[in-house]
Every structure is written in structure tokens, then in C-alpha cells.
Fold this protein.
Amino acid sequence: MTVRTATASDLDAIMALERDSFPTDAWSEAMMAAELASPHGRYVVDVDGAVLHGYGGVRAVQGSADADIQTIAIVASSRGRGRGRQLLDELLRTARERGAREVFLEVRADNPVATALYISEGFIEIARRPRYYQPDDVDAVVMKLDLAAWAARDADSERPSAPAEPGASAATTAGTGWC
């Protein structure tokens, strides 16, 4: 499992996973290309050789007090192996390095596995957005993480390194990715 910064050459594989993971509300190729090129975000991929297992992105403007997890998605056959957690950890480290103190995300209310992953990392629910995910009419659960508290837990090695339940998978954020 290798996590590295995504490049434009990863766009085709990312879009294939995006469309597979989000058949009703996938981002357009133009939107994803703009995200990969933006200096205000960082997208990472989980690869083994030439095989993409997942991707994720964070919007973290240098010096801003807050950041937003944009999306995380994991290939169905690779879920439940800690890959989503590894991508999330890398995105949180990026946000912290850029000066963020809080990280926000939206997760589908119908995805308890993703919610459990976020709670295990220290996120708390702060709001709900009714019928946010369209055309599915699914609410978004808005969550927030205190990065200093997360980093302290990281330093103490108290965070789990794999999903709590074998075979678990998770979904996230604005892109509603499956991890």
C-alpha cells in the first residue's frame, strides 16, 4: 500500500472509481481535474504498482484555520483493510501542516461505517443538512475535528490503525466516497 500525491496522470483511474462509487452524483471529469490542479487542496492516491485502490482529497488553504475533506473513495474489493483510514490520516496531516486547526466533512447519513471511522478519529457531529445528497434524498451529517486533539492522540499512538470491524468499509464527504 503506497499513498502518494495524485497527479493529472491519475485522473482516468480516479474518474473510473468516482463513477463506480457515486453512480448518481459523481463529480465531472472537469471538476476533478480542477481539484487535482488546485494549489489549495491536496489529493492523494493509494496504489500498488499501477493499480489504484483509492483516492481522497482535502481543501486546505495555506494559513487558514479550517480545512474540508472533499472525498475519499476505495475500490469495493479493497475496503475493510484500513485503506480509508490511511488516506484520511494523510489528508489530516496535510491540513495540519498547512495550519488548519479544524477539519470539516459531510458524510451520508445512510453510511454508519464511515461515520464510525470518523468518530474513531475524533470527529463529532455538529449539524445535519436535510436531503443534501441528490437525487437520493439522503441527509448529510456535518462533522468537525479538532486537529490539535487528533495530533495529540496520534503522538500517543492511541488511534486504531485498522477498521474496528473486519470487513468494514466507510464512506465520506462532499464526494461521498466509499472507503
Summary: Residues 159-179 have pLDDT under 50 and may be disordered. The longest helix spans residues 83-97. The CA atoms of residues 122 and 145 lie 6 Å apart.
